[in-house]
Amino acid sequence: MHSKEYWKNETIAFLALANIKGVGFRTLQKIASNGLGFKSILKSDSKEELQKHIKAKIDPNKSWHDFQLEAWAKGIELARELSAQQTRLIFLNEECYPPLLKKIPDPPYWLFVQGNLDSLNEKPVAIVGTRKPNEDGILLTSIAVAGIASKNRTIISGLADGIDQTAHKAALKYNLKTVAVLGNGLSIDYPAGSEKLKSEIINSGGAIVTEYLPNQTYSAENFVKRNRIQAGLSETIIPAQWKVNSGTGHTVNFAIKYDRKIAGLKLPNQFHGCSENEYIISANGQVFELPIETREFYIIWINHASQSKQAWRYKGKIC
To answer: Which of 38, 95, 193, 211 could form a disulfide with 13 if both were Cys (CB 3.0 to 4.6 A apart)?
Structure first.
């Protein structure tokens, strides 16, 4: 097991490399996937040795020694900036890395965590859904979070407009910690106007999480990969309002892949979304009609979320 000093140096080296022109997210991923330490790459014996691993653009008029010193100094500067922003960079093999996320087959090699790192480990429940919910979707989300409030669990979501922000705001209302998983870097204001909500999440003991570099913008691919982190961090996934062929559908599919428990929600006499409910049932999930089955939802699916999903099967009418 590596020491704190080792991981401190890895953080500095990672940030130093990320600041070099020509080095980006994929290059850093490649280094990590090959089991190479970031410090060992930066401390290569020569420019030529470094460029075997990264396509760095180095000033030919600058000595290799001076380049390394300047890069390391920049890494220290960036590490201090992160610290001032209550942000930690944690790596896959660090002891503090969330254990649930570490167990998935494709965990991120690192995470930027702004806020309370411990909130990622407090029996998280993911509540996700469409960016354009109707009144029923908002109502179901609010009811679900209100009931979870007495269970002292962390609410995971993606900060997107609609169901995600409804889940975050309801968690704050009921004094629950909440974690927002981003598909972009921490320095990017996305969704636009979400900075106030981010601050409230952090100040209430939650966290903002991403694997992307601080100034890395969002993309459709990034959001799909972000969804695996939401599912990987959580014991239970609750898609409040969604479509099978959607971003939330990706999160549900990751939950199935990772053997997470999946709980669908519906209101009385609401037949919309039967295909989504059938999808959940086919994955050994369960669909609950609220408020009639509120007790079963909280006692069985939330209290016992750590049990295998195979222990609970939905029996009865889907819609």
So the answer is: 38
